[in-house]
Amino acid sequence: MTPGVCGAFLGAVLAGGLLLVVSRVLALRRTQIAVRVLPYVRDLPQVGRTPGLRGVSASPTSAAAGVFGPVLRSAADTVERVLGGAASVRRRLARADLDKTVHEFRVEQVLWGTAAFAVAAAYAVLRALADPGGAVTSLLLCMVAFVLGVLARDTHLSNQVKQRERQILAEFPTVAELLALAVAAGEGPVAALDRVVQRSGGALSSDLGRVLAAVRTGEPVGAAFDRMAAATGLPLVARFAQGVAVAVERGTPLAEVLHAQAADVREAGRRELIEVAARKEVLMMVPVVFLVLPVTILFAFWPGVIGLHLTTP
């Protein structure tokens, strides 16, 4: 193939790609007919209507989503079929307080894998410039990088869950004490919960805010706390929610239950700290054995060695 023919082919491919992009952007700029009609039919029954009809903006992000969205969605479906575990992902998204669906998380996994693939491909290109051989090895490296990127997003989600659970455990004793003080002052469970949610912020406060919203929509207090106990991944918080539900249903003193729950969490934190120190006892001895002890021996014996050198004829 002559250089002229090759240049013409590349120019035709570039022109076709630009034509597709421009046509898609122009199509996205047009307002959907459903969006134009929807304001005039809002009072009609919601039978067979697609929820959440929204207009598509003409921003570059929307254009990119329109062009690459079908490819990303199909890739996300492929990742879902290969990996599975949609129930586990949905539970971890809820525990991490991320307002995403499983499909959106799979799309993020594909994007992470694509970024890792791009980095590996750039490295492979630089390597190929120095050493033209090894194309199969570079391809395998790119595929491994894509898989590692997909798995890295899943690991990051697990880390997000653990970080939020640590925040909940750190906030729990204070929130429980505040609830106990409000209940002991004569307020009801819902009023005490409202007061604490308004005057606190954090991961546990957001969970209690959802419980308060469920109670205000008519759900019983015990049922709302039972649902919180079922959704959380922390046994201490689950026992707290179950204890509050039982206290509300049976009329037992709620303030004493909350004080006891806060004391249990503080005691569990102290036990965990002691266990961590016991597991890392050997690591704690490393600076003592390899740093402090040699310096001490050197300080003890070095003057004697100098004295022997001075007295030796």
UniProtKB/TrEMBL annotation:
Domain Type II secretion system protein GspF: 177-299
Keyword tRNA-binding tagged: no
Superkingdom of origin: Bacteria
Subcellular localization: Cell membrane
UniProt entry tagged with the keyword Transmembrane helix: yes
Coiled-coil spans in chain: none
Topology relative to the membrane: Multi-pass membrane protein
Keywords, sorted A to Z: Cell membrane, Membrane, Transmembrane, Transmembrane helix
Ranges annotated as spanning the membrane: 6-27, 110-129, 135-152, 282-302
Name of this protein: Type II secretion system F family protein
